[in-house]
Design a protein that fits this description.
The complex is a heterodimer of chains A (488) and B (225).
Chain A lengths: L6 E11 L8 E9 L3 E6 L5 H9 L27 E8 L2 E2 L5 H4 L3 E4 L3 H4 L5 H11 L4 H14 L13 H13 L5 E5 L7 H16 L3 E5 L3 H4 L5 E6 L2 E7 L24 E12 L2 E12 L3 E6 L5 H8 L7 E6 L12 H6 E4 L12 H8 L3 H10 L15 H14 L4 E5 L7 H18 L2 E5 L12 E5 L4 E5 L5
Parallel strand pairs in A: 3-8, 3-9, 6-7, 7-8, 13-17, 13-18, 15-16, 16-17
Antiparallel strand pairs in A: 1-2, 1-4, 4-5, 9-10, 11-12, 11-14, 18-19
Helix pairs in contact in A: 4-5, 4-6, 11-12, 11-13, 12-13
Chain B lengths: L11 H17 L5 H15 L3 H26 L2 H22 L3 H10 L4 H30 L8 H29 L19 H19 L2
Classes of the chains: A alpha/beta (488), B mainly alpha (225).
Chain lengths: 488, 225
Amino acid sequence: MSPEMNAAIEVHHYTFRYPCSGNDVLRDCQFTLAYGEFVLLAGDSGSGKSTLIRAIIGSLPDTVREAGLELGEKTGRQTDEQAGERWGRILIDGRDVTEQTVSARARFIGSVLQDADSQIIHTKVEDEIAFGGENLGMDTSRIEEHISRVCALLELECAWNTSTLSGGQKQRLITAAALVMDRKILILDEPLANLDRAGAALLLHTLAQLAKDGYAVLMAEHRIDVAAPFANRIVRLEEGRVCAEEDSSGRTQFDATMETMSTQKTLRPMAPLLSARGLSLQLGGREIFRDVSMQVDRGERIVIVGENGSGKTMLLRTLARLQKPTRGEIVFSRSPQRQYRKPSPAWFRGVGYVFQNPNVQLFMPSVFEEIAYGAKSTDAARHYMELFGLKHLSERHPHSLSEGQKRLLTIAAIAAQEPEILLLDEPTVGQDHMALKQLMVVLGEISKERGMAIIMVTHDRRCAGYPADQIVRMQSDSVITENGVHSG
Amino acid sequence: MDRFVVSRPIYPPLSILFSFVMLLLGLLISKRESFFFLLIAMALLYLCFGYGRILGKCLLVFVPLSLLVGFLSYLIARQEIAALQMTGRILLLGLCAVPTLSMPPSILTRSLAGLHCPRAITLGMLVAIRFFPILIAETKQILEAMRTRGVRVTMNPLVLYRAFLIPLTMRIVGISEILSLSIETRGFDLREGEQTIFRPVHFTSRDGIFCALMIACIVGAVVWK
């Protein structure tokens, strides 16, 4: 930050510990965000990015009050089992907001949080976007003007029903809802998580432009490769500590995440496992996809790509028989079953499905027990736990993990059931660079060793180079199947 | 979420008043024959005002539930009339929920703001009507997730409890936290007077007709011999 730039957010020696936790999640964090700056908050899964963002917007659990000493000075610790503990201060626009509520801070900050789905309140896109402006007492003409602007910017239609939006469209909607409030400070927690390439570029261009116009933008993101070229600085968190700040100007678009994977594409299909013929799906009068046919062979790796709202998740759900198609049929060689029946337990022993939201598939008291639940043996569970790099978390409660770790755990738990086909819906969301790379290597190994077919829905450009045998490109009006490496 | 929403809802305060009055009146006259007249009249009123789809969905849940409760009541009291009355009371609950369930959140908040209703009440109602459809969707997804993990309903109740209730509880806690945070981060607070109404909601002649028919139902139920 240059000396002439005004500070929008100042974090002074901030330390935070959750209630009943032995470890500090944030440790003596110190950084400044100035107006006119676009700063990227980077770090591995569980490094404290979301906690820092929650500290700034004021949504951390009730904390023990500090003694009120000078800035940066560590204050005396009080004990209260029901409260978190913190030291240090946060200043927004020069004002100490440490004791202020979320809604009071919302007068200065526009924020976009994780889990877009749960944040949507209204049934119409227009109402959802207008909500923030109404609460802040903006003129109706100004709200209308802002709605038109952000809808055009983020390619949303005012009349759309929020329940029919795809994950990416929901993400764009909550971003639009934050932008319409026209706050000079914007904080975004993994806003690219569900966005396709075009959607991500659109949002990043917008944020970079806003920074040029004098806004302060702070964005936590795993996809540094995509975001770095647009940002002014990268602040890196490691185990809750701000460990490095770097200039992002020298960075280029990431293009080699999976370079080591390209040599692994050696397996040839052996025997057909699942075939889908003439699948079509209509929901609420809207055609999601039409006449999709595909064959999945043993050990085959298929990537389904497409823009937001193109029906990728619905196709995957249809292949798993969680969604009934309007037309067409699916035949799984190991479990021939009439189409109109609900899939039997035998079906799901052969076809493993990993949901986009990991929280619904986790229910055991520890990471190890979660994997062991469906595993053939305890040894097999240990093997999968090590394979997915979760050994150090074996005693942790699954719901205490970060979103990225939870996602990895659900993949490990379903893979440990050793299905013949593994269906993965956006498995890369919340994964940092190393975790993603390791995940792709592990999936490749499982596919190769066990002949497990893998079908993966993704829009993550970091998966470019993933050695797919088939790529299914879903577009608004057609579905194209190609052979070869996914090019992003 | 819009599975429960009607395109032309009745004026929200009138809907809430209707649900409240009908529930109270129904419970008071539930031992009279006119009680069943009231239930039929409510159903017809909903059909006339475009609530047929939501009514059907509610009845799908509440008819089996009311029959079950009625049957249990019969087993305990051994009185057909008492069982029938109990069935009717449960149906009444379902029918009274129809207008609130189908109210778009934006219409509710805007009409309450227009009436200068305290923000705390608006907030409570906003979260409540948004939460119910989310809960249904989450329950459905968790049941699907259980099947993918090989958990069957006929299995060990302990496993069933863990596989269903734990994810559901975690999701409910998580969603309610995120939902209220989402409302707060968008500037909704309990201070009065600052908010604007983007599209004001007004009482229309259609609402007047609904109100008149509601009064006719009440009078009919009370004077019925």
